[in-house]
Amino acid sequence: MFIKSVNWIDEESQEAEVVVSDNSFELLCFSHPFRNKLGEELIEPIYCFDVSNVVLAFEQIPYAKKNKNSYGYSIRGLFINKDDKIVLIGNIKLCLEDGKIPSDISEGEYIEFDVSRLDVY
């Protein structure tokens, strides 16, 4: 996953809208402070802020549907790490740190959830 585009909200305070891509999926994220460069590969997962409605998915096809007029998304991805709450959408890693994952969901299963904002640190 890499930084595909940057739209500065306030460059002086290092606040930006950033599109993260893996060439299959693109996610609009908020970033503050933004210190990365265009085209730079991201190592750390994208942080999911205000996660809700986490459920087991019946379909095993990843998707990310952006909500209108916000940073929010409805997402389906592969749950790969229960301890760190990591989900994959294509090759994009997301961290659901503040989300409650139901105990009956196991690594290797697809989950769906809503998120208010995606953050790049």
Task: Explain what you see.
- The two termini are 14 Å apart.
- The model has no long low-confidence stretch (mean pLDDT 95).
- The protein is elongated.
- Strand 6 (73-81) and strand 7 form a beta hairpin.
- The chain contains no helices and nine strands.
- It has strands at 2-10, 15-21, 26-31, 46-56, 63-66, 73-81, 86-89, 92-95, 110-120.
- Helix content is 0%, strand content 54%.
- Strands 4-8-7-6-9 form a five-stranded mixed β-barrel.
- It is mainly beta.
- It has one domain.
Which features would summarize this protein structure in a list?
121 residues; mainly beta; single chain; elongated
Radius of gyration, taken over Cα atoms and rounded to an integer in Å: 14 Å
Percent of residues in helices comes to under 10%
**Unreliable stretches:** none
Number of helices: 0
Approximate shape? elongated
Q: Major sheet: size, sense and barrel closure?
A: 5 strands, mixed, barrel
What is the mean predicted local confidence, pLDDT?
95
End-to-end distance, in Å? Answer: 14 Å
Please state roughly what percent of the residues sit in beta strands, choosing from under 5%, 5-15%, 15-25%, 25-35%, 35-45% or over 45%: over 45%
Backbone structural class: mainly beta
Spatial strand sequence of the major β-sheet: 4-8-7-6-9
Task: Write down how many β-strands occur, each being a DSSP E stretch of 2 or more residues.
Answer: 9
